[in-house]
From TrEMBL:
One function term, GO molecular function aspect: DNA-binding transcription factor activity
SUPFAM superfamilies: NagB/RpiA/CoA transferase-like, Winged helix' DNA-binding domain
Record domain HTH deoR-type: where: 3-58
UniProt keyword DNA-binding present: yes
Alphabetically ordered keywords of this record: DNA-binding, Transcription, Transcription regulation
Entry protein name: ArsR family transcriptional regulator
A Pfam family it matches: HTH_DeoR
Highest taxon, organism lineage: Bacteria
SMART domains: DeoRC, HTH_DEOR
Amino acid sequence: MLPDRRHQLILRSLRADGPTSVSVLAERVGASQATIRRDLAQLEDEGLLKRVYGGAAPVVGEDDPFADVAGVRVEAKDALAAWCANLVKDGETVLLDIGTTAHRVARHLHGRSLTVITSNLAVYEELQDDKDVQLILLGGVVRRDYRSLVGFLTEDNLRQVHADRLFLGTSGVRPDGQVLDTTAVEVPVKRAMIAASAQVVLVADAGKFPGTGMARVCGPEDLDVVVTNAPGEEKTCARLREAGVEVVAV
């Protein structure tokens, strides 16, 4: 079994059952205990789980509920969202990430001849009555306070689709260009969105440099464009450009 598939099964097991021993994980995944221990070490380094004596436990996120975040830096987020919407061409398929910034992008897509794929319930509610937009809502477990769908069903759905571009949110961008999130359960969904998209556009206002987050979503090499209003973050932007990322200051 490929490492990525093992990691997926390990994380699913922890999300479903909580703390689990190495021996049980080895049996479920069909790998040796030594292999599982190496997997757990890697996944802990990525912030996706916490190793405990004899096994591992899921990481509990500490991000703010959707309604609280929606009222933060509204004007900046809306300016970034408007620029992103102008990047979209009619007829395209667009993936919109979880979070408030993606919701603001959706507000600028009304009346466009597009296909929008999302696991963001706020995006779904924003566009559900727009007859011009073909709207695809991914399945998954509902996180009510965060207005999102997550879990293995969401990840499986994403493997069945392809988007022209993804508008990706983040809770933080490190000076070395690493993209972070505060909630481990959302990381596999974000990674699956990246894999399903021809172009990845990271939307990050000034508050996301360095922002917060303990779980790594991706590196700068996985991004195509970063849209931001953080001109003071020249070191981070220079690192992104070195990785071939187009940095757009709005």
